[in-house]
Amino acid sequence: MQPMQPIKPIKPINPINPIKSTLLGLVGIIGIVGLMVFTGCNGKGKRPAPQAPDATDYSSVVVPAFNADSAYAYAAAQMAFGPRIPGSAAARKCAAYIADRMGGWCDTVVLQSFATTLWDGSEARGVNIIGSLNPSAPKRILLAAHWDSRLWADHDPDEARRHDPVPGANDGASGSAMLMELARVMATQKPQVGVDFVFFDLEDQGQPEWVDSYQDNTWCKGSQYWAQTPHRPYYTAVYGILFDMVGTSQPRYTKEEISRHYAPGLTDKVWNVAAALGYSDVFQNKSTDPILDDHLYVNQIAGIPTIDIVQNSPECSFFTHWHTVSDDLSTINPQTLAMVARVVMTTIYADYAK
Questions:
Q1: Nearest CA to 36 among 218, 161, 212, 166?
Q2: Whole-prediction pTM
Q3: CA end-to-end span of the chain, whole Å?
């Protein structure tokens, strides 16, 4: 992410080669990377998400048992491959690992391969991974995260390390681990709605901090592509929730501007659920600046009201180890993952429990 530019509509994105989607079993998966920046948006495509009645007793909603240690193990497994950077063996192995695990829990898994151009004009290939529960259900909920890690530690305090890759524990692996454990447990107690778990590639490869001029749309390449060409024709969802950097020991999530602008009802609902569960100190009722993350393109291009649950530390950029070589497994607290999962599952099952 970067300090935000003035709020404005996004410009046309770089063309991306035609989609190549297959069912689980596609070979030669190639990874890349993507992250977030601050940017703006307009009112195009804005539509409110439904809210649960105020009388709902969220504390009594029964949800599947999210295993914090299991989620942490999925993060550790991703980290063991090494940085999931563009074109690397680590990225290929990690994509295969995620797809294999999701195939054991989901009804369908689709691998969406794409090609794009990065900020410096170089070409790269990536793969979005989509696992689905209840694939024939007409109403759907989108849960998403990015699985790649950043190619450059351009925010590291040591200038000599700023061209090193970021390990990407909290910034990448935590969100993917969240999706994996959610898929595992929700498969055992399916809600009365379709759920799509989307792992975006190439989110964190936006222009480095050493580039002087700002360029639009250099981040979030996987979500830009998916939003233009979803894994199913005419795909839509009631709403979407994006997870990013959701594993710190000192979590703080605020109502950032893009979430409030495009999905005000959903934003309020999730924060109300968190308060009802006793997490108002973490899900703080504060309005903060917009963050350019995958949810921007899901909102603006796909028209799905989507919010971002993303770490927002008041004293630093997101969290202390953001875009540094020290974003390792020590940055992830399993109990934070469990807390966020409980809030999200309560939000879903309050409306769609059997």
A1: 218
A2: 0.87
A3: 39
